[in-house]
Amino acid sequence: MTPSNPDPDFDSDRAPGPEHGGGVPPGEGPPAEGGMSEAGPRNDPPKGWGKGPLIVIAVLTLLVVVGLVGYAVMVHD
Question: DSSP string spanning the chain?
Answer without folding.
Answer: -PPPPS-TT--GGG-SSGGGSS-PPTTSSPPPGGG-TT-S-SSPPPPS--HHHHHHHHHHHHHHHHHHHHHHHHHH-
